[in-house]
Amino acid sequence: MRPIKETARNMLDRFAGPRLAELERQVADLQVAAEESRRLNERLSDVLDVVVELLVPAVDRDDERLREALGRLGKTV
Amino acid sequence: MPARRSSSPCWPPGSGSDLTHPTYVDDRGIHAPGPAEVADNEPIDILFGGNRVWSFTTGHDGRAEGSGMLVAWPAPLKERLDGVAQVTVVPHNGGDTLFVGSVRFGSSDKELELVDDVGHPLSLDKGGRLQRTFDRMDEAARLELVEAARRVLDDLTQKCGLDAYLAYGGLLGAVRDGKMIGHDSDADVAWISRHTHPFDIVREARAAERTLRGLGWSVVRMSAANFKVWVPLPTGKRAGVDVFGSFHIGDHFHITGSLRGVLPREAVLPFGTVTLEGVEFPAPADVEAFLAYTYGPSWRVPDPAFHFEHPPENTRMMSQWWRGTRTRLAHWQAFYTSGDVKRVPSGPSLFASWVAGRIEPGSRVVELGSGTGRDAYWLADEGFAVIGSDYCGAARKLARAGSARRRKQGKRSVQFKGINMESQYNVLTNGARLAHEPGPKHVYARLLVDALARPARPGLWRFCSMAGRSGGHTFLEFRTAANRGRPTFFGPHARTYADPDEIAAEIASYGGRVIDRVEGTDLAPLGKENPVICRMEVSWTR
């Protein structure tokens, strides 16, 4: 029995092994991409907050409101 | 010698007669008889002088030791164990007392008192913190907290336009007997989002934070989809009401922290009502289904040792959506509140004097990741205008306390700010403010590259490049990839061992230029640890 099992395993490794390794690599790549994509929501929201809070006083050249908005935004860690 | 109970206990409950020694308690923990295989999930209470201080299960908290089991003291409790206490070990839901006796912990002969700064007895809550739990509060104090939660919930509903309801322990207590759960320490509310995309949910949470701040509430962001509202109490203390986002994304219902499962929207909306400590709250439409979703099918059985055991993939997914600015924060919070922090040297590092010799006397220095503040204090003593910063609140608290002590001694105090390289807006706003101020500002970051997870590094380079526009340099010291797998002074730490060439390339891509680079050992030895270190001086001007 043992030689048959070993032969079967060898055949599996030979023919399916490279394909499995390729699939594992693809899954790992997709996990990295999914993680990055999930993190983007918060990062994009951060940038949007800064733009929304600072753009109007910047266009108005309202230094006082600009400083106030910077101070307010910078408080949240 | 610890006291032992004279009669034979039955431990764990249901384990029968295969006991090798009776239960006893000492500095290490609770020693239980019987093989580890009989560990179970029956909650057991530990009482000091009649007051419950902790609950555990042998299945979750015990480990095999010899022929029995050891349930080790959790760190926050262990640090307070010095003195003599009358200890009782008893099953929470009834049964024979397993141990009772006087135990001396540590070396003190004084009575062991687990109390807060005003004498309120403390116990370990479900989050592993020593808190004043509800079983230690009188009715008036419990009512204060519940009414505070109701005020927050009203503003979430009426001013923020959210569908808010009572959740977690408060809901469980209301449904069980209309009272707060004895071993809980806070009242939690949640809102169910109308949105189904993470980006919209982040925007919704931030809008609510802004509205509440505008109403005068003190709001602390805990993640992109939950926050804490600090409510002043008539007693002069303050209570934290946690506000959790809940939402359907895809086929799943989620509640922050990390709950993820199947629960139809109809089980939540339209709201019914429950009463907690006599105060009415909106509650999910099908509270039984909701509590089964939250706590599992045995939610009706009281369990002070309850722990959420989220599947790792759920926690990972929720962390990636909502906690991208808090990577490794739990680790650093635990470190800066543990006894390990006493092993951090109080004097300056060798790096501090390396940097001090390279910058103009009296120049401005911003330290990122200042930890206990040891280098910031020394640089201030050397005459530099120093601002310290750390994203870890426990580190800032320690550093600020140190600064206050210095002020009393007539030394220069140092300001410590919350600057977080993982938060884009925190980097952009603090970087912009710093860039706006006149004159060169140097950035000092010792062992920060090690501490940051890799995705946080772009924020670091962005901040340094903004600060360096007016001529200030960035000074980095970090352990190199050569240290991977080598033993460290503080044991296992969350660290990123970086390749200096890779760091130099990243800096170049943000417009920086490494003008000096030193690599080797003997630059930052600590105890038996003598890591391979890289130091860099970086200029951001062309």
Could you walk me through the main structural features you see in this protein, from its secondary elements to its overall organization?
The complex is a heterodimer of chains A (77) and B (542). Chain A has 77 residues and is mainly alpha-helical. Helix content of chain A is 90%, strand content 0%. In chain A, α2 runs antiparallel to α3 (63-74). Chain A is rod-shaped. The termini of chain A are far apart. The model of chain A has no long low-confidence stretch (mean pLDDT 84). With 542 residues, chain B is of the alpha+beta class. Chain B has 15 helices and 26 strands. In chain B, strands 11, 12, 13, 14, 15, 16 and 17 form a seven-stranded mixed beta sheet that branches. A seven-stranded mixed beta sheet of chain B has the order 22-21-20-23-24-26-25, with helices on both faces. In chain B, β1 and β2 form a beta hairpin. The longest helix of chain B is centred in the N-terminal third of the chain and has 20 residues, at 139-158. Chain B is globular and about 70 Å long. Residues 1-20 of chain B have low confidence and may be disordered. The A-B interface holds A 34-35, 38-39, 41-50, 70-71, 73-77 and B 197-199, 202-203, 206, 221, 224, 317, 320-322, 324-325, 391, 393, 418-420, 423-426, 428-430, 432-433, 455.
